[in-house]
Amino acid sequence: MRVESQSGEHPALALIDDIQGVSARLSTSSVCHPTRCSTDSFLFPVDTAYELSPTVFWTHQLNPIMVRNRENTFNTDITNRETADLPYGSYSVDLCSLGLKVYLSVQGEIEIIPDEDRGRVIDCSTAESVRIGVRSFHESPSGTVTTTDQPRDVMRALSCLGSALKTTTCERSYPTLRGHPPLIERGERFQAPSGLERTDETASVRIEVPPTLESLYPLAPLAYYLNAVVRPGETPRLVAGDATYSLDRGAGMESGVAQILKHIFTLDCITRTEGLYPLSLGEREVFETHLEDAGYDEIDFAAIYEQPLAEQLQSYFSISFDVVEEVVPRWPLTADVRPVPKYLPFLPFVVASLGTVRCLPTSSPRPTASVTPAIEEFCRNRDARVANGDFTRAMPISRERQTRSSDDTSDLPADIYRPPASDSISQIWLADGYPVRAAKPTLDAFQRRFDATPVDGYEVAVVSNDTAMQAESDVVELYEQQDQIAFGVTMHEELSKQALRGVLTDDYDLVHYVGHVDGKGLQCTDGWLDTHTLETVSTRMFVLNGCRSYVQGKGLVDAGAIGGLCTLTDVDNVSATRIGRTVARLINTGFSLGGALDLISEDSLIGRQYTIVGDPGTAIFQNPEDTPILTEITYAPDDEVIVDLYGYPSIRSQIGMLYVPSVGNTDMYYLNCGHMTTINTTHSAVTEDLQHGRHPVRVDGSLLWNNEIPDEFLE
């Protein structure tokens, strides 16, 4: 972590997190010369701190600001167009939504105002002293636990997951207070670093299940979140103090564990509003209405906040699951896993996202015979479309290739599966074969989350290797629409195998490939580049927007990429171009691969034929508001507009963070996952809001962008 001064016409401070690959910029009224100082004066932990000369800061957006005094008493939170004029005192100023934790420690007066051009302005120019402290969101596992394949040893390994929690209070629902669980590896005997394993003496919660892998996989996230010890038992149950609760809520243990996790997490988010951050939370307001409707007496959340964990759970379980379910956020991740030992090392990465786990049958089902009826129809009509001038991205460009039938599926993966339906944003498949509309991660790809990522600037390469697909080359302009960070986009056309190999081994953050793909490789001017021949690649993320690109995508992940978007079947050029443009914009605004796949799958049938190879939580770019947002607009009569807001968390902005809508001039916070709120407002208010930033907007079922809404909707 470092803070650097930028001089010139527009002086600023660059706040740089080299580990996570995130940077932020604070403009200043004068050139600052930050000098390293002690971190002791900060109320909250910071990685590094600097002394600054008094100045005026501004953030270029209306970030929420939270202020505390020296006694750690919450003073105020400032959202949207609110102001604050704080008299002389000692303050801790929390600048939110910058991609890293940023605090100002100020002795003196502070004025905080919104400004049309400068965003949030924090005037500390008359203060006696100003210090800035920064902390990374990055989390590394605290160690590695070795387990045999025996269920009783796996229980001990799961009993280590909770050691990563930085608190066992309800504030562990904040992602920054959870921490990445220790890694798990398979070995000859159980072994864990000292202090990691929870025991009956150190844990206040115990989970008992039959000693089978089918029982153990689903409870991993709950064991982590509750800092629980896991023990064998005939009946699946949770023991909290002198109370016990069945893990089977009526639809089996697996479903019950997921329900309990969501129940506790949601109530934690509500209860924590009585603690460090007494903010107005939309979910609490809705929940208390549901409570009243259900005939409950008013619940004393202030008292629950003070309870130890076991008693807190007893209070939570006294509330019906049906009442809480109304405000449970859309869950970020569901993992479908074959309950065999080889997938045990994947569990910490699922748990880190609070993903729920479902077990597949131990015997492999039959592969999905076809992807969707629509695609079957697409393939049957292919010859007719070719005759009309359309083509797919698996169509031949050489005489040799022209002899291949469009129905030739010899290079298609043979074992494609359609995972069970899920309402989560992302879904991963931990089993043999390839999933439709889900991600197939590798352990190496997950572990690349921990690689340091310098942020001198982001570099994107767009490769267009077929002149007939040049329409998609305009993604260059879409990637260039970044004004928050240093950004470079390079266009490459008609590359040879050697040249494409060079692009993939250069240090690009993202490579977007447009061209034909098949089992031989990626199309080049002198043949096909098989990615499995690459010993290493340096690109972190990729988009292979050609037909049946999964196998070549797997080659890139095996060679070092974190993840990428691929296809499992043919895609016609027109649809692929549209999806390629959409994906470029989504990635550019901070969406993870999983979030982008969710949106394009909802947007079109062809979008459902895309899949992810590698880590679906991968997000190359930081969204200025931390969590990427989808705005859905419904225009109604009489100047009324209904706005629905949806959050798409990633590993950079995990479930539990907060979001304040800019439309509607509200000071209400919402959880950042799935549908957050519905706001009734006016045409003029929406039109004003659409002028700021770049984000996806759904209007009348069509996925658009805020700067291209048709005039007829805005009039």
Q: How would you describe this protein?
A:
The protein has 715 residues and is α/β, with parallel strands linked by helices. It is built from 19 helices and 40 strands. Strands 1, 2, 3, 4, 5, 6, 7, 8, 9, 10, 11 and 12 form a 12-stranded antiparallel β-sheet that branches. The protein has a 7-stranded mixed β-sheet with strand order 24-33-32-31-27-25-26, with helices on both faces. α1 packs parallel to α2 (213-225).
CA-based gyration radius: 26 Å
pLDDT averaged over residues: 87
Distance between the termini: 47 Å
Number of strands: 40
Low-confidence stretches: 396-408
Range of helix content: 10-25%
Shape: globular
Content of β-strand: 25-35%
**Helix-strand makeup class:** alpha/beta
Largest sheet: 12 strands, antiparallel
Count of helix runs: 19
